[in-house]
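Figure caption, in words: inputs first, then the predicted bound structure.
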Amino acid sequence: MITSFRYHARTAVEFGPGALDRLGLLAWERGLRRVLLVSDHGMIGAGFVVRAVKLLEDAGVTVTPFHDFGENPDTAMVEKGRVIAAPLALDGLIGLGGGSSLDCAKSINFVLTNGGTMKDYWGYDHAAKPLLPMIGVPTTTGTGTEAQSYALISDAETHVKMACGAPGAAFAAVILDPELVVSQPRAVFAQTGYDAISHAVESMVTSKRNTWSEAMAREAWRLLADSYERMLTRPDIETGAAMQMGSYFAGAAIEASMLGATHACANPLTARYGTVHGRAIAVMLPHVVRWNAQPLHAELHPSLAARLREMADAAGLPANLRAVGAREEDISELAAAAAKQWTGRFNPRPFDEAAARELYQCAW
Ligand SMILES: [Fe+2]
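Bound structure (fe (ii) ion present):
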């Protein structure tokens, strides 16, 4: 039986090799005349910023670039962007780059249009005024933020990651150009691609899942599982395209069904040891899949946990907590932090502090 659900598509998708060339037209069509181009430093070196600025200017759009933020954007970096944007009378923002660029664009949009700080928007739908329209151009294949109405942003003081969402934080349009993702560094791909895989696997079985998210997760898994190892060894446009669509579908699945215990256990590792998200995920995911023992997972692969470990090994991602520098005496505190993660609530098997401790012990 198909249970009731609600789904609202807010984002137009432009997919295809060379789709970036339509950036100027897309912006113009949406009434964008003055935009902030939020793009991390790596995009300058890759030549993507110069190209994007030219495409926008050729279409009659005035562009102010903003690059002053790091790999894990925080509230202080967002505030810098807001200060630059405030006097510009913008009518839109463009995020070009990895998840950090896209989340930074969304976050600047919140504080620019609604004031206050990102903490005010922690949770969902706390922005009273409309946000400005945005276009997203992802150049990595992982977070899936291009398919979501949430921005993940760290509190500059406490380092707590806040998920801040609102319907207006979804991109009006997203450009998925596989030519932009084939050149991502292997180490970046190894982590972000595995994160995308975890999104498909976790969103597939959450307590909040519905027929729509299940379809997205299933197709995401098919594309990602088929392409991940090939992309590690022989990246090409076709494989990049499959990874890009796979991570988009996985991101769209999360938007509808959220995540589970893997992300709940991974986040405290990042907060405590600075472990990169995809590496923390690789440590936890196979154990959580085994622990959850969901029949739907067997439809993805007859021995999914082993297959996931095999993929992580192919990418050289850590296999246990010791490999990310965790200390055994920290497990109790990590478990307490994991139990507080919002996303753990949607895990199909009830997840609490004792469950988190058990999972960390499995992963030790
Ligand atoms: Fe993730």
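The longest helix spans residues 211-233.
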